[in-house]
Amino acid sequence: MSLYKCGNCGRMVELGADAQVRCPFCGYKILYKTRPGIIKKIKAR
Amino acid sequence: MIIPIRCFSCGAVIADKYEKFKKRIRDEEPKKVLDDLGIKRYCCRRMILSQADFLEEVIEFEVKGP
Amino acid sequence: MKVEILEETDNSMRFILSEAHPSLANALRRIMVSEVPTLAIEDVTIIENTSSLYDEIIAHRLGLIPIRTDLDIMNLREECVCKGEGCPNCTLKLTLNSTGKDRIITVYSHDLKSEDERLKPIEGIPIIKLGKEQKLVLEAEAILGKGKDHAKWQPAVVGYKYYPAIEVNGECEDCKKCADVCPVNILESEDGKIKVIDEMKCTLCKSCVEACEKKIIKVRGDDKKFIFTLESTGALKPREILNKACEILEEKARELATLL
């Protein structure tokens, strides 16, 4: 399961691995994957 | 995108002067403003003069929430 | 070696180094740009970033921000009592927490909160712009470093030139050709002769030598006297940079003497 953001209505959509890529609220087929809740460490170089 | 913090060639800090420059060139000569701000080398001057500020336009493309 | 300060402001300085040698002048310059330690952000922990720029871009921008440094209270990490593990004596922690408003906001370097009042990022540098619903939360660790490892630790832009010596010897016809051709306008005719007004401004371009038909102008650089221009990034005061550079040069010379 991972979290996506609908490109049309902007609502958060949670989809499983075999789910159809489609927003359940508005039917829009473009979804943006959101950032995982991981804390990222980077070198400032 | 957004003004680079330092000059690519010499490493002098230029980002803090960019907003002042932007404000002043509305009714002043760019050459005079650059001299006034103490940006004397041509490497630093091109950083300011050739800046294309379009981060604000990119923000517009962000998917908005419901 | 003698130093005479010509002018000094908060972040720039001009001085004359005399009774020196080109190798000494260059050693001093190189030490000032690449051996004098300053503070800069090295590690960034991004907790939340929904802005339009990538984490790496933001981290890189943060690294380039000069941080006001006090060399008496900070140690280089490898020379610190903690033996390179990281402790308050060698690490400065900074935090940033910003959320976009209805209008686009600019996040500045002074929005970075430093844990030590004495060591703060210099003000007024825009880091990023945030729109509505965009958020940036991060922690950063600044350490002392040297310009030779990364340009972000470079405390100043330093340059020097030989002290100009302009000689006018012989019969001058007062044709003013040399004065017209001089890019910094330091030649002027006076009583039918060419006079140098401000020799320090001379860039040693030798245009006047070429323009003079009678070949009576001689321009040369004095290789025992140098005009230094020092422009600090704001991390250290110009005087601190010069003093520290001299200290380091002395230390290096001593080290070499023991090795020989």
Structure summary:
Chain B is an all-alpha fold and 66 residues long.
Pick out its properties.
heterotrimer; A: 45 residues; mainly beta; Rubrerythrin, domain 2; 3-stranded antiparallel β-sheet; 36% strand; elongated; B: 66 residues; mainly alpha; Arc Repressor Mutant, subunit A; 4 helices; 45% helix
Provide an overview of this structure:
The complex is a heterotrimer of chains A (45), B (66) and C (260). Chain A has a single domain (2-33), classed as Rubrerythrin, domain 2 (Single Sheet), CATH 2.20.28.30. The mean pLDDT of chain A is 89. A 3-stranded antiparallel sheet of chain A has the order 2-1-3, with no helix packed on it. In chain A, 0% of the residues lie in helices and 36% in strands. By secondary structure, chain A is mainly β. Chain B has 4 helices and no strands. Chain B has helices at residues 15-24, 30-36, 42-49, 55-59. The longest helix of chain B has 10 residues, at 15-24. Chain B is elongated, with a radius of gyration of 14 Å. Chain C has helices spanning 22-34, 55-64, 177-181, 207-211, 238-259; strands at 2-8, 12-18, 38-49, 91-99, 105-108, 113-114, 126-130, 135-145, 156-168, 187-190, 193-196, 217-232. The chains are: A mainly beta (45), B mainly alpha (66), C alpha+beta (260). Chains in contact: A-B, A-C, B-C. The interface between B and C is medium-sized, with 22 and 27 residues. Strand 4 of chain A pairs antiparallel with strand 3 (38-49) of chain C.
